[in-house]
């Protein structure tokens, strides 16, 4: 049995949180005077006000959203490849010239092999969570983005990335932990290869640390400056950071987590090994409790001689596992419990997509952060909500409920793994990046140019010097052929009432569970 061998949280990500905690606090203090968190309930109460404000911003941005739908070309061409399948439009899909590190080492310059090419029109509308792109960029919808705003985002950025005519330039300010920046930049280069000629000129500042820093309150009110547009991996209700897919989609070399397109296939197979009914009927979690108080609080729910809250919780022995080459970290073999707990560490955790894809029912401890896809998750549909301030009783009830409603509980697990498999597959990760960067670039009020210290970047400049699993994962996630269709069609922005209704619905599902939970405990002696 390998049921305890689960990788949920990674030591490096988490030790890093502890190590940089103080430093980061200092960084945070730049914004500190205006810190004020905005709980969800407050957000709902404030909504009528936002409705009015939002209505203006909304009408101002309507026009810019139309561009994505009709971008495809109707020109047809002689098929020179086996890829053209549409009877009406045949696309030319020349493979990109293969990597040649000998040539790169000789000249030290990036090859010029990226070219425009024809695509078939997109067939699909993007998943619903793409609508949040409009919301994330709304702070600049009226004003546009100026050079001054971008420069102000430099304060905490690890790097500036510039795209000009489909070529990428990089200016590094500081290195984050491990290879987060490397694989994030690698991911953007793959996007350029996937959609050559379709990414407009732009520049962006990227902060690879965990916590969002652009506090909304600071930019609220008359005569305040506009917020800096800063890209990072997660956000929360009090901040305006722009969320972008994290590095793990191209691989996490330090802990041997493979590129997402490979892992996703393995996970799909892994979930079929033990049917839901035959899995352990408990809530399982394994990770590093030290990184967050809320996790230490969770550990108190562990089974012992004196109590059983239906929770089986394990601390990860990262030192031993790293020594053993993470050979116990095979994610697809970890779907052995009916219920899996997701709990944030110091911020969002990349493990959420692995937990959700297990076909187990995810018990999701009320989160504070979101990443680019998690705003698409609906309580009771994709996961079961767990109270943050009463975890043990909440878990006990959830597992009892699930074991008494097996079909419904399994259904929640299944809907979540289907969502991850179908709506968070790599094609859509790239399309999300595509639409986010296109919408972002539309807002530019100046023409970006190559800054003095920026150097050109290409896959050769990254991979030729790389070694070990970094190189391996890069080669595995390399885009070798441009996409043969356009990106999916961007859904329209939420109109304010719909957005309000969506948030309301989520809130009331959670309240529904809380009221069931309350009656359960009221009846229990
Ligand atoms: C290119 O240069 C890098 C670093 O200088 C080296 O590691 C690599 O082996 C070279 N590759 C080839 C094909 O010469
Ligand atoms: C790589 O580049 C070198 C030097 O330009 C050339 O001699 C070699 O044929 C190229 N290899 C491939 C596989 O294209
Ligand atoms: C939780 O309890 C189990 C069973 O007693 C034990 O193996 C495990 O180490 C405990 N977890 C923690 C984090 O103490
Ligand atoms: C993992 O590696 C360790 C040490 O190399 C070995 O003892 C152990 O049997 C391996 N475990 C698995 C599941 O392969
Ligand atoms: C470029 O880098 C050098 C050395 O790191 C630094 O002194 C200089 O200020 C930088 N120039 C710009 C325009 O950022």
UniProtKB/TrEMBL annotation:
Q: Which domain of life is it from?
A: Eukaryota
UniProt cross-references to PANTHER family, sorted A to Z: KDEL LYS-ASP-GLU-LEU CONTAINING - RELATED, OS04G0534100 PROTEIN
Protein name as annotated: Glycosyl transferase CAP10 domain-containing protein
Q: Which Pfam families match?
A: Glyco_transf_90
Question: Which source organism does the UniProt entry give?
Answer: Glycine max
**Residue ranges crossing the lipid bilayer per the database entry:** 41-59
Q: Which UniProt keywords apply?
A: Membrane, Transmembrane, Transmembrane helix
Glycosyl transferase CAP10 domain residues: 198-447
InterPro entries the UniProt entry points to: CAP10, O-Glucosyltr/Glycosyltrsf_90
């Amino acid at each position: 049995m390998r049921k305890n061998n689960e990788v949920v949280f990674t030591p490096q990500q988490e030790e890093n949180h502890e190590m940089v905690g103080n430093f980061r606090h200092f960084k945070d203090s730049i914004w500190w005077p205006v810190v004020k968190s905005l709980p969800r309930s407050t957000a709902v109460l404030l909504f009528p006000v936002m409705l009015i404000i939002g209505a203006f911003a909304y009408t101002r941005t309507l026009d810019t959203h139309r561009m994505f739908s009709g971008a495809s070309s109707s020109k047809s061409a002689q098929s020179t490849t086996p890829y053209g399948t549409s009877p009406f439009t045949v696309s030319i899909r020349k493979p990109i010239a293969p990597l040649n590190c000998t040539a790169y080492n000789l000249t030290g310059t990036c090859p010029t092999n990226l070219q425009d090419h024809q695509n078939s029109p997109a067939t699909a509308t993007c998943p619903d969570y793409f609508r949040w792109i409009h919301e994330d960029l709304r702070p600049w919808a009226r004003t546009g983005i100026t050079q001054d705003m971008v420069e102000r985002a430099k304060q905490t950025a690890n790097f500036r990335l510039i795209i000009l005519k489909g070529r990428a330039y990089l200016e590094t300010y500081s290195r984050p932990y491990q290879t987060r920046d490397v694989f994030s930049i690698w991911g953007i280069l793959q996007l350029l290869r996937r959609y050559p000629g379709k990414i407009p000129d732009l520049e962006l500042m990227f902060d690879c640390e965990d916590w969002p820093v652009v506090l909304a309150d600071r930019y609220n009110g008359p005569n305040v400056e506009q917020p800096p547009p800063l890209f990072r991996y997660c956000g929360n209700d009090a901040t305006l950071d722009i969320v972008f897919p994290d590095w793990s989609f191209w691989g996490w070399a330090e802990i041997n987590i493979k590129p997402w397109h490979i892992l996703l296939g393995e996970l799909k197979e892994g979930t079929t090994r033990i049917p839901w009914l035959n899995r352990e009927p408990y809530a399982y979690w394994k990770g590093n409790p030290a990184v967050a108080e809320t996790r230490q609080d969770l550990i108190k729910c562990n089974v012992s001689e004196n109590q059983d809250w239906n929770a089986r919780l394990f601390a990860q022995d990262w030192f031993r596992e790293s020594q053993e080459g993470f050979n116990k970290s095979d994610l697809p073999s970890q779907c052995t419990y009916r219920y899996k707990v997701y709990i944030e560490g110091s911020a969002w955790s990349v493990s959420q997509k692995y937990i959700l894809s297990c076909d187990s029912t995810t018990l999701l401890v009320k989160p504070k952060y979101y990443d680019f896809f998690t705003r698409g998750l609906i309580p009771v549909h994709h996961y079961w909500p767990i109270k943050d301030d009463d975890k043990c009783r909440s878990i006990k009830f959830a597992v009892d409920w699930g074991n008494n409603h097996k079909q419904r509980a399994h259904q929640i697990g299944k809907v979540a793994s289907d969502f991850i498999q179908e709506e968070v597959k790599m094609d859509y990760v790239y399309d999300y990046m595509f639409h986010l960067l296109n919408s972002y670039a539309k807002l530019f009020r100046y023409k970006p140019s190559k800054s003095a210290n920026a150097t050109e970047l290409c896959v050769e400049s990254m991979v030729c010097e790389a070694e070990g699993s970094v190189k391996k994962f890069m080669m595995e996630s390399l885009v070798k052929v441009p996409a043969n269709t356009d990106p999916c069609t961007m859904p329209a922005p939420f109109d304010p009432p719909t957005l309000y209704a969506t948030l309301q619905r989520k809130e009331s599902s959670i309240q529904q569970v809380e009221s069931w939970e309350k009656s359960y405990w009221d009846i229990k002696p």
